[in-house]
Amino acid sequence: MAALIADKYEARKAEVNERFEQLRANEEELNRIFAEIYNMVGEVPIEVEDKYVSVARIFDTAEEIPESYKGNRYVRTKRDEVVSLISYAVGCMFGRYSLDVDGLVLADAGATVDDYLAKMPDPANVTFMPDSNNVLPVTDDEYFGDDVVAKFIEFVRVAYGAETLEENLRFIADALGGKGMPREVIRSYFLKEFFDDHCQTYKKRPIYWLFDSGKKNGFKCLVYMHRYQPDLIARIRTDYVLPQQERYRTRLAALDDAVQTAEGREKAARNKERKRVSDQAAELAGYEEKIHHLADQMIAIDLDDGVKVNYAKFADVLAKIK
């Protein structure tokens, strides 16, 4: 049955905020009890300040958060809730989570889709299948069949229904902020903000790693650390980086032809696009050399070494952790 994320959000907000007020009431009742036991009624504060209540409280926007809540690290906004939804969706794309079972699914070193299916109650009818090769491209357009934005939109469709898809995408985009149509806003979020939010959630120990060619967005992709295998980087190079380089070459050739016949504003627009694509192509050329070098090494990782040690092995080709 189709569902609106807006309705789910309002229900969660009501539940969370009710829990917040209940905990405050419980703590104040305890304060009264102890004040009476120790004959300190009127001498010690009974009321619990907003910033000291240690469970979540949700506001629609950061601007709505009263000054009295400043300093409460449990305060959340609608954007925080949507970011959590996106994080969960990415987890489902990698098989860490599933719409069919509760809790963690794939969290062992080198886990595969076969391991995922073995844990499903009905392997022949999985609600949402994880990505088969553990690579989700994050690019400024939908160049690949397993594009992360396309996968996310499919997740929203499967989880909440096709009938409400467009309204749900609008809700997500509005919560994230930014300009453009919902799909453009969501793509911009994955390109520019998802990894930073993920690093913040996981205290600078990301489990979803971002392979990143640089500021020109020549190429990016997400991989799941727990599904890493030594041939992963070689597959990123041959299945994604090299095809993307060919796309840029083809696009540049087409733009060269278009510039020759264009005039006025159209010519200026074509030249601007050509500069952007040329910069991306140049960035990706340098990145291909780095990733080629690592691919040949077939580096293994040990999850017991932790994120910090393993991430450092690929520092030249991964996004900086901020």
**Amount of beta strand:** 5-15%
Kindly give the count of domains.
2
Note the main sheet.
3 strands, antiparallel
Q: Helical region count?
A: 10
Category by helix and strand content: mainly alpha
How are the strands of the biggest sheet laid out side by side? 3-5-4
Which oligomeric form is depicted? Answer: single chain
What is the string of SSEs from the N terminus onward?
HEEHHEHHHHEEHHH
- Unreliable residue stretches: none
Mean pLDDT: 95
Protein topology:
Layout (H helix, E strand, L loop, with lengths): L4 H33 L19 E3 L15 E3 H17 L18 H6 L17 E2 L10 H13 L4 H12 L5 H11 L1 H8 L6 E5 L7 E5 L7 H30 L2 H34 L8 H7 L10
Description:
By secondary structure, the protein is mainly α. The chain is built from ten helices and five strands; from the N terminus they run αββααβααααββααα. It folds into two domains: 5-73, no CATH class; 82-312, no CATH class. The protein is globular and about 85 Å long. 26% of the residues are buried. The mean pLDDT is 95.
